[in-house]
Amino acid sequence: MHKFLPIAYFENQFVPFQDANISIATHALHYGTGAFGGLRGIPDPQNPAQMLLFRLDRHCQRLSQSARFLHFDLPADKIEHTIIELVRQNRPQTSFYLRPFVYTSDLGIAPRLHNIEKNFFIYGIELGDYLSPEGVSCRLSSWCRQEDRSLPLRGKVSGAYITSSLAKTEAVESGFDEAILMNAQGKVSEASGMNIFIVRHGQIVTPGFEQDILEGITRDSILQIAKDMGISVLERPVDKSELLIADEVFLSGTAAKITPIKRIENYTMPTKRPITEALRDKLTAITENRDPHYQHWVFSIACN
């Protein structure tokens, strides 16, 4: 069971989480006409009264961009200010995850984005490890990642996640932890809610944006960190067979952080993961505000 933060933001005000409720007739509930974000917060190891949010500005920019697909003008700075105040009011004592959500809030039955009310809410949950840091097993999903010509994949549109849900359940019910989806061209795209990387001959390779992936913020961070560490990075199409012979394979995401893959189908992956571990250690230091070079990525909120 999730432990929700006690205060939510709903219909332009801060209210107790249990009072933030929508109608069963809400338009977005029926048509998937919503878009969401997700970001982690942790207590500052040096000062537990300070909460640290990783790349807050980038998360707010992406949600604002996602809202545009819904014909909803929601400025990034409004999202950012609301998140900051929500954290201050909740005063979390442990690691947490925030879920901001924009949606068509009218009570109607016609699928549309014009002449319809939109709204915005945020809630939070306490959250530790989303996936096992020791590594996960993955199957290749029978479900295909959608194409950008049929869904706006540059946004985290809620309706698109039916495919992720189908793939995740298929994987778990067949004995795996996670799913890897291929795109319509038969190339590796992403996991159910994470980007994917392989390491071959000391070089990091990951599917590019043209492979119908989500523009992951953790993914972007890893690419920048790797370049700063002098690790070669290549964004290009990835074949299924490359997964099975890679030296290392790992997933990335806000919830998953950096999670190694230990098995794909019936192929056991190497247990030595020097690049994965180096990147994970670096990312952990950055999110805990222990790396001065990346302090601009970490936003600190006083919760006294």
Please, could you describe this protein's structure?
- The strands form 2 sheets. Strands 8, 9, 10, 11, 12, 13, 14, 15 and 16 form a 9-stranded mixed beta sheet that branches.
- With 304 residues, this protein is α+β, with helices and mostly antiparallel strands.
- A hairpin with a 3-residue loop joins strand 14 and strand 15 (257-264).
- The model has no long low-confidence stretch (mean pLDDT 95).
- It is 26% helix and 31% strand.
- The protein folds into 2 domains: 7-126, D-amino Acid Aminotransferase, Chain A, domain 1 (2-Layer Sandwich); 136-287, D-amino Acid Aminotransferase, subunit A, domain 2 (D-amino Acid Aminotransferase, Chain A, domain 2, Alpha-Beta Barrel), CATH 3.20.10.
Give the mean pLDDT: 95
Q: Which fold name corresponds to the CATH topology of the largest domain?
A: D-amino Acid Aminotransferase, Chain A, domain 2
What is the CATH class of the largest domain?
Alpha Beta
User: How many individual helices?
Assistant: 7
Structural shape: globular
Give the CATH H-level superfamily of the largest domain.
Answer: D-amino Acid Aminotransferase, subunit A, domain 2
Low-pLDDT windows of residues: none
Q: How helix-rich are the residues, as a percent range?
A: 25-40%
- Strand element count: 17
Indicate how many domains the architecture comprises.
Answer: 2
Strand content: 25-35%
